[in-house]
Amino acid sequence: MKQKNRQKPKRKTNISYFVFFGVNSVMSQPVNILSQSYAQTGQSKQNNSLGMREMQERAFEKRNSQYLLIKSPPASGKSRAMMFLALDKLINQGIKKIIITVPEMSIGKSFKSTPLSNFGFFADWEVAERYNLCVNAAQSDTRKTAIFSEFITQDADESSLPQVLVCTHHSFRYGFDKVIENGGSIELFNDVLIGVDEFHHVSASDSNRLGAILDSITTQTSAHIVAMTGSYFRGDSVPILSDSDEEKFEKVTYTYYEQLNGYEHLKSLGLGYYFYKKSFFDALDKCLDTSKKTIIHIPNVNSLTAETDKYETVGRIIDIIGVMEDRDDDTGVITVRTHDGRRLLLADLVTDDALRANTQAYLADITSRDQMDIIVALGMAKEGFDWPWCEHVLTIGYRGSLTEVVQIIGRATRDSEGKSHAQFTNLIGEPDDDKSTVKDTVNDLLKAITLSLLMEQVLKPSISFKRRSEIDLLGRLDLPLGTVIVDDSTNSPSDRVMNILNKDRDELLAQLCQSPDIIKKYLAAETNGIEAEAVSDTVLPSLIRSKYPALDENEIRQTQEGLMQYMAINREGGVIEGENIPDDAVIENERFFIKQGSEYIDISTLSLERRNKLNESDIIKERHLPTDAKIYNPKSKSSSTNERNPSNSFVKIGSKFVNVSNFPIELVKSVNPFHDSYEILSRTVDKKVLQTISDVVHASRSTVTEAEAVLMWPKIIAFIRKNGRDPNKNADSDIERRMAEIMSYARNQRAKQEVNSHD
Predict the structure, then answer these.
(1) Are 316 and 308 in contact (CB under 8 A)?
(2) H or E element at residue 696
(3) Which pLDDT does position 554 carry in this prediction?
(4) Mean pLDDT value across residues 464-477
């Protein structure tokens, strides 16, 4: 479909993000625990003079990087960004050949020949049909491997030969191995661009063949690599790149917030969880609104959620929707008459018969909203699947990979005319204490609800960290919203720490969300304060240390504090731009001035007598001072330029607004990131289910560690001084009981040391 360069007028609307929970197979009113407004600027869909959207332009600025990693959400234009980069490398940077590799054949259609010059670019993207190995589904692996070998071994200097090959990850692995087995040298990949789509399929694991091949190409050839992903964290928690390999990659990040903020039609996004008893079929009609364009993902037959085989599952879903009237002999599309008399078109991507390929081809070619209503899928219609009219993705059963869940959500977040709301619903079985699988069920449920934490972070305005020394004081008030200033006058954070905080924090957060043991430790810390701080000071350093073994202890601490500051800011409602703060609002530690001639005087430096004589109209708030205001100190009788905090981003805490760069460290470190999700859950499920969850959580409560004891000891001493007694292990207060446990631990440790010293 041709794009148009004509710009549509901007509209000022809002998009809200919320998560809600249902229970007992009965739809309840949404519980709005997270909300975010978006400006609807249309920016993410606008083209520049080269036909590039905002994300593509940002990636193209890094086109000279040999190794480039693009992290960008679904529908942001990654495929075309790859075309722009590849053509520039081919024409201007000495690259001889291009290999684009994608995880599945359906995604390969995104890289078909495209006349980019029609939109302003200096060249067209051309792929010969023979060398697009994603076009012909009937082609054998042997045939594809032969074509791959032919492409990579042919003379690159013959301009008449095709220069672009598109294949799946599977074909790339087999093709590479066959070339090497037949005596080909890895040097054949010199001056070749390897474009890897959906890069999260790669890992540094020894068992990941694609990762090993890319590692050898990176270390032994002059090849360029451009990698793209909409979700730069793997479901199995294995890092995509080794620490040393990752250092080689220049990273370009385009956030979910930037993408959603630039939409034109979509106004709201919802994440919902519904818990059912006994059978998901009984709950399905409560969750499925057949008036919405919907993708239903059914559970794998080997999962605990599956209740019958996949064919029976599809049949029963159709029965819930209505009555099957017809199946088209050419496309395989099914017509279903609903119970209220409407006719719907349904695509069955589960039944692996001769017509399924035809159904996939039909879906790839649809051009209007009316050509499809409901898609039922198993293992398909996830990453790279483009049905822009999709409004609802209904997923039955917990998905063990956050990457997979984010990809599923991305199916509904395309912007299209007539779609104002997108919804993700996860239908999950309630834990039952009579089942032997109760622990696994609770783990799945806890991981599912913590997805809201991850999405809370990535869907809000981006928070960036900058050293104070990096800021141009003359332009400091033009810093982007959400800039956190790091004081580097002493103990300056290293470049590695700053890169992690600005580019990798969501991956760290994803690892935090994917560990049931970590989640349960936080939930067992029943308060939001001292116990959560103790958990964070043991769990987070360990997580950071395992992912970044090259960091020293000081860098680990700085990374931990930055990550917690990031979570705490969003926990308190996110950042607020200074100009949006009401004039009568209170800003923490804000100073007040009077003007005297061309200078300003802080009223705190005036005598009490003079302060009492001031009129309210004479007082000027610090937020209203000119950027270059001269401050006169009557005590020292000297003047200086105003040194107010350069960040103009604030967080509302209670009734006050606090500058993000002055966010209280005690509040930051006391944040329990999973508290809100658990609170919502506790108000949603019945008491029996909640008790089952609580029993599993507390059965795994961590014992006292040395790190927790060291952290808590000053607070225990303060308790003893205040109350004139030791903490009581039978006290009603959770904190006091924990203090008593720590005192017992400390006494035992001391006794062990005394015994050892006598030995």
Answers:
(1) yes
(2) helix 687-699
(3) 93
(4) 68
**Closest residue by Cα to residue 396 from 312, 276, 513:** 276
Residue 670 C-alpha from the chain's centroid = 23
CA 105 to chain CA centroid, Å, is 25
Are 164 and 86 in contact by the 8 Å Cβ rule? The answer is yes
Query: Per the domain annotation, does 672 fall within a domain?
Result: no
Residues 189, 232 within the same domain: yes
Residue 144 lies in a domain: yes
Beta bridge partners of 596: 599
Q: In this structure, are residues 275 and 430 in contact, taking their beta carbons and an 8 Å threshold?
A: yes
Residue 463 belongs to a domain:
no
User: Do 128 and 272 fall into the same domain?
Assistant: no
pLDDT tens readout for residues 14-36: 444 444 444 443 334 334 344 45
Cβ–Cβ contacts within 10 Å for residue 260, how many?
24
In a domain, 686, yes or no: no
223/287 same-domain check: no
- Mapping DSSP onto H, E and C, the string for 238-288 reads CCCCCHHHHCCCEEEECCHHHHHHCCCCCCEEEEEEEEECCCHHHHHHHHC
Give the whole-angstrom CA distance, residue 538 versus residue 485.
26
Which residue, of 242, 259, 276, is where some domain finishes?
259
Q: Are residues 315 and 166 in the same domain?
A: no
Percent of the chain with pLDDT over 90: 30
Give the residue from 234, 259, 284 where a domain finishes: 259
Say how many C-beta atoms besides its own lie within 10 A of residue 255's C-beta. Answer: 19
**Distinct helix (H) and strand (E) counts, the chain:** 25, 26
With H, G, I as helix, E, B as strand and everything else as coil, classify residue 325.
strand
Which residue reads 């207060």 in tokens? 733
For the record, the structure tokens of 294 come out as: 């919907």
Q: Are residues 187 and 313 in the same domain?
A: no
pLDDT at 311: 94
Q: DSSP characters for 503-551? A: IIHHHHHHHHHT-HHHHHHHHHS-SSSHHHHHHHHHHHHHHHHHH-TT-
Q: Quick one: 103 and 177 in the same domain?
A: yes
Residue 218 has pLDDT above 60, yes or no: yes
Residue 324: CB atoms within 10 Å: 14
Cα 700–706–709 angle (5° rounding)?
90
Number of domains in the chain: 4
pLDDT of residue 158: 62
Tell me the average pLDDT across 666-670. 76
User: What is the share, in percent, of the chain residues with pLDDT greater than 70?
Assistant: 77
**Are the CB atoms for 507 and 233 separated by under 8 Å?**
yes
pTM assigned to the model: 0.70
Residue 542 neighbours by CB distance under 10 Å? 13
Tallying the residues shown for the chain, one arrives at 759
Which CATH number fits the domain that encloses residue 136?
3.40.50.300
Query: Are 759 and 621 in the same domain?
Result: no
Contact (CB, 8 A) for 405 and 230: no
Q: Are residues 291 and 367 in the same domain?
A: yes
Continuous segment of H or E residues that includes residue 658: strand 656-659
Q: In terms of residue numbers, what domain contains 743?
A: 707-759
* Selection from 151, 226, 218, 221 nearest residue 186 by Cα: 221
Paired strand residues for 599: 596
- pLDDT confidence of residue 368: 93
SS3 string, 590-640, reads CCEEEEECCEEEEHHHCCHHHHHCCCHHHCEEHHHCCCCCEEEECCCCEEE
Report the distance separating Cα 225 and Cα 65, nearest Å.
Answer: 9
Q: Model confidence over 479-513: pLDDT tens digits?
A: 677 788 887 878 899 999 998 898 888 778 877 87
- 232-274: pLDDT as tens digits: 454 444 555 565 666 788 888 888 778 877 788 888 787 777 7
